[in-house]
Amino acid sequence: MTRATRLMAKDISVAFAKPAVLDELFVCIPDGKLTVIVGPNACGKSTLLRALARLQPVGTGQVILDGKSIHKQNSRSVARRLAILPQMPTAPEGLSVRDLVIRGRTPHQSALRQWSKDDAKAVALALEQTGMTQNACRPLEALSGGQRQRAWIAMALAQNTDILLLDEPTTYLDLPHQIELLTLVQNLNRETGRTVAMVLHDINLAARFADHVVALKNGRVHCEGSPTEVITEKTLGEVFSLPCSVIADPIHGTPHVIPA
Amino acid sequence: MILRLPFLSLHFSQRAASVGSGLFLALLIAFVASVQLGAFPLSLQQTWSTFSGNSEGVQRMIVIEHRLPRILTAIGAGAAFGMAGSMFQTMLRNPLASPDVIGFNAGASCGALLAMALTGDFVLPGAMTGGIITAIAVSALAWNNGLHPYRLILIGIGASLTLMACADVLMTKLDALTAAEMAKWLVGTLNTRDWDDVFLVWTGLALLTPLVIWLQFPLSRICMADDIATGLGLTLSPMRMLITATAVALVALAVSVAGPLPFVAFVSGPIARRLVRGGSPAVLHSAVVGAIVTLLADIAARSVPIAQLPAGVFTAIIGAPVLMWLLLVQFRKGTL
Fold this sequence. Notes:
The complex is a heterodimer of chains A (260) and B (336).
Chain A: E1 7-14, E2 22-29, E3 34-38, H1 45-52, E4 60-65, E5 68-69, H2 75-79, E6 82-85, H3 97-103, H4 117-129, H5 145-158, E7 163-167, H6 175-192, E8 195-199, H7 203-209, E9 212-217, E10 220-225, H8 227-230, H9 233-240, E11 244-248, E12 255-259
Helix pairs in contact in A: 3-5, 4-5
Chain B: E1 2-5, E2 8-11, H1 14-36, H2 44-51, H3 57-91, H4 104-119, H5 123-142, H6 149-173, H7 176-187, H8 195-222, H9 226-231, H10 236-258, H11 264-276, H12 283-303, H13 312-333
Antiparallel strand pairs in B: 1-2
């Protein structure tokens, strides 16, 4: 099977101690698709995403972006093609939503050229797409958890990259906010054709929103494919050691997991 | 607000601009007051006539030869301390950090005392050498696959405490008179500054300030988490090295003309950031705050009837209440 891919991990290993967190892992992030990485705790999901975004140095193997090792490329030039939103990001006290989103323009700016028409356009668009235009002047700490997460996504969007990586963007959000946020991400993927890869804990949500699912186990890709291919009773038993039944979601038709 | 020139476009908030103007005005008022006040008080009219060049001997000598060099040194040293402190605080993401964190002041004190104990002279070269060696040693020890804030803070504090103890030991080796003189220098003083000091500190500032202005851009991004700054395309460790080197150069400049004035670098950043708000590093505002605090401390030092107290005694007395007041006001208004 061949498919277009600009971002891939080629046999990467990361070891803080034994056993290795990532063990000669190979994965391609399909272009223009919404990929979700799932797996049990400590399977290396976040490490993989961080490695794909050059935040995590790799021991052996390499992460390839546009045909070249990402760790050997100029960080600024990478930041114009790939944006990452890490888990639980922090910002200085008092920073407004607009100022945060403006920070997303960093790879397109320099100390001497801090503002251009493109910057203004990208910031306005990112605020609009995330529905944060109304809250642009409020400081981050005055926002609710869901709004704050939207503000961070707006920052990543303002970076205007073809590839967007999100590390557990739904952490600490209640179910309605999780759905709202994932719908937003899905719309962005559909409307702008951005490649999105994210780590999610909730398998049912992964099944519902993903085009492509990658299941990790012990630092390796256990299996990958469409939600219906990956989210089966057999794989869940193998990956999560979870006895369960998988039925078709009566409304959306996507796989739905019911733990036994 | 956007400042647009053919080769430059700067982005800053309206509040930053108005707070900046306000601080500048305050500095101007403190400057005029400082020229007037002292053992030989001058009226506003006399001050003006001195500057416009039609005044007689004594008055002119007091202002031009004594007060002005001292005042301009205070402003320059205060600005350098203010910028350095605010840069360290932003880079280390610790609002209460100061250049002392990297051990510069402790190293400078130790170096000055060592030079005095060994040679009986060379206080300033001793201080510079001691300070810079300490800063380099602390950065080198903290380096492990890059420069990490927490390691820098911990190693810096350890080095500072060790050097302070060494300084105390060296102090006991000096005779009482020299020790008293050195104690004064170690507190930081602006007594008997001349135009050479003014020239030194302002040349240094003229060279370093453009770099500081340039560094504001990476600084206002590096103050977010490492992962975010890297994701935005910054290369953290080289940038941290450059910021540290610039801040150490600023501290060295200030110490060389005013001694290790305590507290200015520590207090200027928090005051400036609380005034500007919006999560901005406010490095240039900190410079003006630092200048005001130092100048006020020097006015206080000159106005107290006890002869020739070092200004360093007053920097904390003036800086700390301002910071506490700002914290209290914001706490009450719930904007903290």
